[in-house]
């Protein structure tokens, strides 16, 4: 019985770039893993990993004490919770949203689930697929402390850092700040790279040197490592969507995000041109698609 309490059954929905290695880590840490996917082929990624496959969300929910969601949008999360999960979850269960979304949606989810005795945590993760595979994600958590402590061993299976930031929505707020600062830093890097190219310096060599000094940042270290010419267009679009979420969240909180949003959007939309400039030696404003920087 003690082992059962320490390793409760965990459901997981959303076996994408980050979700699959997270779910794998949960199972390999000894938690009974239950999985469902809209596309059954997605479950093939768990081949060789101990888990129970389910044909529907209700069946999965009835078998689990904790259910993690790592899906694309708030709308997807709400649809899953109201479309069968909540109906089948036992009182005392916990729903965890690992995706990035609005703090207001986290509050709404908590309100929807409270009458059923189900707690909700917003626990978005930072680090991308490489960090998920190496089990060194940072998990930013909002919600009741008791639920956080209950889920902490699960989070620890795929995280290097688990930080509880406050009540419902605090994890999402922190993640949006994280994403905005990353994008803003990318805008700063693009301007420095343009100046360096104008002075006849090798931008790739310069960036390599800056990574070794006090100017180092995640924004620098991700260039030509996690952010590559193969995926930069996709990541640029994702970052722009994150900045839109950031702007909405701040305005819902009666804050003025104007300057931060503008700078972050410049970094997000200019990411492709920045990466091409590092690989071609042409200024970021002239590389890539030739458009002027936003």
TrEMBL record:
UniProt-listed SUPFAM superfamilies: 6-phosphogluconate dehydrogenase C-terminal domain-like, NAD(P)-binding Rossmann-fold domains
The 6-phosphogluconate dehydrogenase NADP-binding domain covers which part of the protein? 10-166
List UniProt keywords, sorted A-Z.
NAD, Oxidoreductase
The cross-references to InterPro entries, in alphabetical order and at most eight, read: 6-PGluconate_DH-like_C_sf, 6PGD_dom2, 6PGDH_NADP-bd, HIBADH-like_NADP-bd, HIBADH-related, NAD(P)-bd_dom_sf
Q: Where is the 3-hydroxyisobutyrate dehydrogenase-like NAD-binding domain?
A: 169-254
Record's family? Belongs to the HIBADH-related family.
Official protein name in the record: NAD(P)-dependent oxidoreductase
């Amino acid at each position: 019985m003690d082992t059962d309490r320490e390793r409760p059954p965990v459901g997981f929905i959303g076996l994408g770039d980050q979700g699959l290695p997270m779910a794998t880590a949960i199972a390999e840490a000894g938690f009974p893993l239950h999985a469902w996917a809209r596309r059954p082929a997605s479950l093939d990624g768990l081949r060789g990993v101990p888990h129970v496959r389910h044909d529907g969300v209700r069946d999965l929910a009835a078998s689990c004490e904790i259910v993690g969601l790592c899906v694309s949008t708030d709308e997807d999360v709400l649809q899953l919770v109201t479309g069968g999960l909540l109906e089948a979850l036992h009182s005392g269960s916990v729903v965890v949203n690992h995706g990035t979304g609005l703090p207001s949606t986290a509050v709404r989810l908590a309100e929807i689930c409270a009458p059923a005795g189900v707690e909700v945590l917003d626990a978005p993760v930072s680090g991308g697929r490489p960090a998920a595979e190496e089990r060194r994600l940072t998990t930013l958590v909002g919600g009741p402390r008791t639920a956080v402590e209950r889920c902490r061993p699960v989070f620890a299976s795929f995280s290097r850092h688990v930080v509880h930031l406050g009540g419902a929505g605090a994890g999402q707020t922190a993640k949006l700040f994280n994403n905005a600062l990353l994008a803003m830093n990318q805008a700063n890097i693009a301007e420095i790279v343009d100046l360096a190219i104008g002075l006849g310096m090798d931008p790739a060599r310069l960036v390599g040197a800056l990574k070794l000094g006090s100017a180092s940042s995640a924004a620098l270290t991700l260039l030509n490592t996690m952010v590559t010419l193969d995926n930069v267009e996709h990541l640029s679009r994702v970052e722009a969507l994150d900045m839109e979420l950031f702007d909405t969240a701040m305005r819902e909180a009666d804050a003025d995000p104007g300057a931060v949003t503008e700078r972050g959007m410049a970094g997000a939309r200019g990411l492709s041109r920045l990466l091409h400039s590092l690989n071609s030696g042409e200024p970021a404003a002239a590389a890539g698609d030739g458009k002027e920087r936003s």
